[in-house]
Structures are given as C-alpha cells and as structure tokens.
Specification:
- 58% of the residues lie in helices and 5% in strands.
- It has 37 helices and ten strands.
Length: 730
C-alpha cells in the first residue's frame, strides 16, 4: 500500500469513528464535531449524577415515579436528539455545531436549574421534546413562537436557550414572550429580569402591574441609575407609579412607604407621618393602626396595595424596637426588662407577639407581652380579637398553644360558647385559604394542645372530621385533601392509634433516615454549615474551629480563605464545609458562602445535610443554598411557616429540626456533634432514639422548644398535601 493510500485509509477510519458505533447505533460523527458529542455525554452524565450518586439513574427522593421518567428522558431523548442532528439532511451543516452546543447548554442549565428549583425534573422530557421540535422548525426557517407559547417558563426558556435560535426570524418576539412567561412564573423577580429586557414592548405594562404586587421593589428600582430606573421614572400616566417614584426621590421615603395605599387615596397626609416618624412608639402605633385598617378592609374584599410590605415593616419594627430589647434584658428584673412595653396598647402588644414568632423568647412572651396585653384589655380575649378583626388569629392561637397560654386566654372569654366558636372557626374553611399557612398553623397547634388541653384537642379532631365530610359531600378536592391529612396527623399524635404516616399519607418515612440516603457513590457524606459575620456568628465560628480542631476523630483544613473543611479521621468519611463569617459588611458573607457553593459545583458535590448557625433573620439566606439532595436541615431557629415552606420548596423530603424560638448555642453544638457521630459510626438516623441521646447530652433550659422532624406537624402537612395534590414548586 502506497503512503498516499495508507493516509487515505487512516483518514477514512478517523472520519467514520463514532460514539454511536461503539454502542452499535450505527451513525457517523465527523471528527470536527466529535468534541461536541463528548461534551454532551459529559453533561448528560453530570446531570444523572446531580442527584448525589454518580450512576445511570436520576433519583428523586420521595418521588420514584418522577425519577424514573426523568431518567428515561435523559438516557433516551438526549441520544435521539444527537441522532437527529447528525442524520437529518434538512439541517444545514453550518448549524449542526450550534445545535450540539445548544444541547450541551440545555443539559448544563437543567443540572444547575433543578438543584435551584428553577427547572422541574418532571419537565425534562418536555424540554427535550420541545428542543427536538424547535430544531426541525428552525431548520425550515419557520417561526418557533407557536411551539413555545403554550409551555411554562422553565420549559420554554430552557429549550430556547441555544444561541443558534438567534437566527430565527421571530427571535425578538420570543424574548418578549419569555419575559411575560417569566413574570407569570416569578412575579417577585420580574423587576430584576426587566433590567435585562428594558426595551421589551411589555416593560411599561409589567412595571405597572407587578409594581402593585411588589410596591417595595418598584420603590427600590425607581431609585436605580440604570435604564429600568429611567423607564419607571418616565411613566406619567399612572398615579400609583408616580406616587412611588415621588417617595423614592425623598431622603426618608421608606419611612412613608408602608402607608402607600392610604397616601395614594388621600386617607393620610405626609404631615401626619412626619409627626410620628421620629418617635418609635408613635411610628409603631401608626403602623398598627394602619394594619388594623387594612385588615378590616380585607374582610370586605378590599385588599390594600402594599399590605404585605406594611406587615413586614410592622414585624421589623416590633422586633428591632421592642422584642430585641426585652430579649436582651432577660436577666434583668421585670420592671426594667418590660419598661419599654408600658405605653403600648393591647393591640400593639398583640402584633408584637404574633409577628415576632420564632424570635421572641419564651420568658419575654409569658412573663411580659402576654400578661400585659391581657391586663390592658381587662382580661377579655374575645374583645381583643374583635377589635383586631381576627387578623392573624390562627397564628396567635397556635403561638398561645405552644407557650401554654391558650387555656388562660379562652378562660377570659365572656362565654364558653364563644371560645368554642373561635376554635371551630380556627379549623373551618381551610380549603378557602389561598396558600397553606392557615393549615400549617392548625397542624402545628395540635401537638401542644394534645399534651396540655386534651379536651380541646379532642374537639379539634371532631371538627376536622366534620369539615372532611362537608368537603367530601360538595366534592371539594382541596378541602378533602387538607382535612384528610390533618385527621391522620392528629391521630398519629396518639400512640395508641399506631398510625403509620408513611402508609396513610404516602409520604417518605418520618421517624428515620436510612444511612445510605446521606452518602454519595464513594460512600462519603457531604455536609454544609453557614455562619454569619456578626458578633454571635464570629463567636460560634471560633467555637466550631476549636471544637473540631481538638477532636481526634476530625481534622480541620483551614487553608482556604473563604471556607474551612472538617473531615473525619476514622469511620465513615464525612466532610463538613463551613464558610468563614467575614466582616459584617455588605455581601462579605455572601462572597464566602458563594465560594463554597462554587466549589461544590466545580467538584460535583451534593450536600445531604445543612446546618444553619445564625440568627433567624439570616435563616432565609441559609435556605437559599439548600438543594434537592438535602435529607436533613437543622435550623436552630424556626421562623414559622414561610421558612419551613421555603425549605420544602428546595428539598421536598427534608427532615427539618427547628425551634419555637431563638436557638441556643449550648443546644445547637451538642446536636451537631451527636448527629455527625451517629453518621460517622455508620448508623441510621432513628429520630426517637436519637432525640433521647441528644437531650441527655444537652441538659439545658430551652431544649423543650426544639422540635424533632416527626413532631413537626406543619412540615408533615405541607409534604403530605403536595404529595396528595401533585403540586410542584418552582
């Protein structure tokens, strides 16, 4: 064979070499596109391994069926798209690399997106199918809009992510369509997205519509010196937007902001606000007065614009101006400790208690706020609720049950029948609530009532059954689901009933977490811990470093400037990653925490345990780093419904350990040590026996406020409801 013939043969072999040939699929990949296919296979395997196990399956904890469908989509449809791109003669050769790179980008976005709950695994098959169809349509130079418009944002955006679609004649129309879909799916993030699409034909209408839903964001973005800020300030045909813009241009605009609805309607003047804004009692009093006004209006179907922002500001003022002070004085005499409360009305004390749930100390509530509130209302709890239009009353009753003051509260009612009516209303009509918060309050209250007021608990259970039957008769599926779940949860509190919640509600086991659920394919356990750069955070981190440095079963690596790593020296290999609490200046903690997350991403590590070490106001930040692979989440401080709900949106089967109030360092550290030692010894987490061991180690006041996962009825209610209804969060 001549040299020329040999070279021709070698080149022929090279150009006929194919990934598929190795698998017996029988199509050729030109050498200049081989790398694109290699990258697709790499991303495909990374997506399969993003569940925490580097194998050929995509497993969803607590949802095996969805996991199987996602696995089939990844393993079959990705290769089908590769086959289409290489074999369809209608696809231009110059576009084939773009489609292959696009498939790589889609897989990468799916991997990062599902961990952030931005892409649902149940949508994987639809994403691939849509992309395959769009390749065909785009290759025919037809509009892709008709094929995209009926899908939700996560599917539409992911499937159109490839830059190759920028050549489509309707690409600009696609961008306008996507911003509408984004706004529908993420209304609370719309303003941020508009900073990137300020020139969209929908920008003005979205500013006006979303601004009324999120006026505080409208206020903030109106101040920005970018194109979106200019766009907002240029709107002159909307009085609401103009009012917000006017406030944003004032030095102390945020002080006036909670009263926005009344300002727009002329029910309050700037002069009235100016007279109160510099006095903490007068300003807090005005917030409460407005809250009560908005609550009365809401009963008549008139929801004030900015009601949520008002409540949030009231909550912040209650904690910053009063509760933090009485908490800090917990060792002082009552006269000194509760002096700042003496001027407050019973209604103002009510909001002080109910809006700082999870922050207010038990003693601050039971020795200060509650008795003073009852004294000032002449010990008439029924009158108090009436003056408040029953605003937040379910949360208040749940809180009172937790602090064992509910019996006393009901004893102050003029009639026993009135107390019975309130508890009946407490349980009734949950199917009409917009979200799940009211149901969670009912669920959370039962455990306390069962132990302290068994007769009232029995009445609640009877009311639950009555409501179940009523909803069954009317065919209200939401109501049937809510009351069936509550019935099973309440019965499970009685050990004589022997209720198996896993069997009854179809949720994963609540009393234990198998050891294998924590490990990756190497048998390692990856955990993460979040610290914050305030004084307490610095102290906690210092204690953490000394504790693990002095333990011979652990070795601490402090070589990284942003985070440290503790690793076991014997037993199961456990890695505990903890960010350094950097100086308490804007974004410093974020920089350290984000560096840790980037390390996880780069090394394809999936934490299965999250520890929050910080005050309750830092908790949402820690929650933002939770991924679907998390099996146990230790919060230390609860924060109520919204925190639990946001955790379960991140990881639908997380076992949550929380506290009714602020966590204690002397409790948090023993829990963490006991928990990690159990895993180091390769033991399953059996919560009942574990809790006995933990409480025997941490013998300090306050441990009774910590709630084990199997007693967290609110979290179990949310899990069961979403399992029953099939609702998914995104």
């Amino acid at each position: 064979m001549t040299g020329k013939a040999l070279l021709s043969t070698i080149l022929g072999i090279i150009f006929s070499t194919s990934l598929w040939a190795q698998d017996g699929k029988g199509f050729n990949i030109p050498i200049n596109r081989q790398l694109f296919h290699d990258n697709i296979i790499k991303e495909k395997n990374l997506l399969l391994g993003s569940d925490g196990k580097q194998d050929d399956e995509f497993t969803l904890q607590g949802n095996a069926d969805a996991g199987r469908l996602a696995t089939a989509a990844i393993n079959n449809q990705v290769d089908a798209i590769r086959y289409l791109i290489e074999t369809d003669n209608k696809i231009e050769q110059r576009l084939k690399p773009g489609y292959l790179v696009g498939l790589t980008d889609i897989l990468r976005h799916m991997r990062t997106g599902w961990r952030k709950r931005e892409v649902l695994p149940s949508h994987f098959a639809q994403i691939f199918s849509l992309y395959k169809k769009l390749i065909e349509v785009n290759s025919a130079k037809e509009s892709i809009i008709p094929y995209v418009q009926h899908f939700p944002y996560d599917i539409a955006y992911t499937a159109t992510l490839p830059r190759v679609f920028e050549e489509n004649p309707n690409y600009n129309e696609l961008k306008d369509l996507l911003i509408l879909k984004y706004s529908a799916q993420y209304p609370g993030k719309t303003f941020y997205q508009l900073t990137k699409y300020t020139n969209s034909k929908h920008t003005d209408s979205l500013i006006k519509a979303v601004g009324r839903q999120y006026p505080e964001q409208l206020y903030s973005y109106a101040q920005a010196g970018n194109s979106l800020g200019y766009k907002i300030r240029s709107i002159k045909d909307d009085n609401f937007v103009k009012t917000v813009v006017g406030l944003s241009e004032m030095k102390s605009g945020q002080i006036y902001f909670p009263f926005l609805d009344n300002l727009v309607k002329g029910k309050i003047t700037m002069a009235e606000l100016d007279a109160a804004k510099d006095d903490r009692v007068k300003y807090y009093r005005l917030l409460v007065k407005t809250q009560m006004d908005y609550a009365r209006r809401a009963l008549n179907g008139d929801t004030a614009v900015g009601f949520t922002e008002l409540t949030n500001r009231l909550q912040k003022k209650a904690s910053d101006e009063f509760v933090n002070e009485i908490n800090a004085l917990h060792e002082a005499t009552n006269a000194v400790r509760f002096k700042c409360l003496q001027e407050l009305t019973p209604q103002e004390l009510y909001y002080l208690a109910v809006l700082t749930d999870g922050l207010i100390y038990t003693s601050s509530y039971t020795a200060g706020v509650y008795p003073l509130m009852m004294q000032k209302i002449n010990n008439r709890g029924d009158s108090l609720l009436l003056t408040l239009s029953f605003d937040h009353y379910r949360k208040f009753l749940r809180q009172a049950a937790g602090y064992n003051t509910l019996k006393n509260f009901f004893a102050t009612f003029k009639s026993k029948d009135d107390a019975t009516s309130v508890m009946t209303a407490f349980v009734n009509g949950l199917e009409k609530s917009k979200g799940l918060e009211d149901g969670v309050d009912v669920a959370d209250s039962y455990a306390s009532l069962y132990e302290t007021l068994p007769d009232l608990a029995k009445q609640m259970l009877t009311n639950i059954k009555t409501n179940y039957q009523r909803n069954a008769r009317t065919g209200n599926k939401r109501g049937v689901a809510i009351y069936n779940i509550l019935d099973k949860l309440f019965q499970s509190a009685d050990p004589t009933k022997d209720i198996n919640l896993t069997t009854e509600l179809g949720i994963p086991p609540v009393y234990n977490v198998p050891f294998d659920n924590f490990t990756n394919e190497k048998g390692e356990i990856i955990t993460q811990m979040f610290f914050y750069g305030d004084e307490d955070g610095m102290m906690d981190f210092d204690i953490f470093v000394r504790t693990f440095s002095n333990d011979p079963k652990w070795k601490l690596d402090q070589s990284n400037s942003k985070f440290v790593v503790a690793k076991t020296t014997s037993g199961v290999p456990i890695y505990l990653y903890a960010n350094r609490p950097l100086a308490n200046t804007p974004d410093e903690d974020y920089v350290a925490q984000n560096a840790m997350q980037e390390f996880f991403e780069k090394n394809n590590l999936s934490p299965t345990v999250t520890f929050h070490r910080g005050h309750s106001y830092h908790a949402p930040t820690s929650v933002s780093y939770i991924t679907p692979t998390n099996r146990v989440v230790f919060m230390g401080s609860c924060g109520g419904f919204f925190l639990i709900d946001s955790i379960l949106k991140k990881s639908s089967d997380a076992h949550i350990i929380s506290s009714k109030q602020t966590g204690y360092r002397d409790i948090n550290l023993p829990f963490i040590r006991t928990f990690l030692e159990t895993l180091r010894l390769k033991k399953n987490i059996d919560w009942i026996s574990f809790w006995k061991e933990f409480t025997s180690v941490a013998k300090v006041t306050g441990i009774e406020d910590y709630i084990p996962p199997y007693k967290n009825l609110g979290a179990l209610f949310i899990k069961a409801y979403k399992k029953e209804t099939g609702e998914e969060d995104i």
